[in-house]
Amino acid sequence: MIAKRIIPCLDIHKGRVVKGVNFVDLADAGDPVALAKAYNEQQADELVFLDITASSDDRDIVLDLVERVANEVFIPFTVGGGIRSTQDMRDILLAGAEKVSINTAAVMRPTLIEEGAHQFGTQCVVVAIDARSRCSDVGYYYESIPNSLRQACALDKQSQFEVVIHGGRTPTGLDAVKWATYAQSLGAGEILLTSMDADGTKQGYDRPLTTAIRQAVRIPIIASGGAGTLDHVVEILDVADAALLASMLHFGETTVSAIKQKMIEANIPTRILRS
Length: 275
Fold this sequence. Notes:
The chain is an alpha/beta fold.
């Protein structure tokens, strides 16, 4: 069986790692380079670096910081935030990342997924989806969303989860399950799924949301938002292919090694820890 993955997440704001609750009330969590090095030494399976205000601030990602982090890790490294073109993707991959994560830009221009998959391979394209329990009326759309995407992914009476963009600030009127399916059809190689409702709460991952997406797509899903205990991680790996963690690791509540030991005890396929 394919091993499940543990992935620390570095949410970057003004050059520092931060963590908040529901994407607000951000607290400083440390230096990204130092944390990346520590998680590499703890034998994390992968690392995710997200410049969380690049899209909302309409600016490019900080490439020199990407390079500095990449120099400290020898595990797959995904970078997202402010990516708007295949040239941006190329720059990030050349800076040392193995994958790129696109979120707001993918909603604004879904063909970016297709272009990235064609140029760099589907394995390089991660579509990040921020979703929460439905918060808009049917018929409401963020004005810049293409008509083709509205038609394919509109909320309907059965929709339970809505896509939000701009770091969770903007509701879209799009059904999260439909969007995940559509992204897969365009060439997304993986879904990074963050629950806005669960983010930072430490009350557990959003199982209903993750299960709904799992039933709709065949590509791997990284579950994000809500981890507070080792049991939370074990429980979500029943439906997700990987668990993204931030607060528990950044603030020293646990380690990657401890999580993996818990996974082994629960008979979850796990990459063996090196001595």
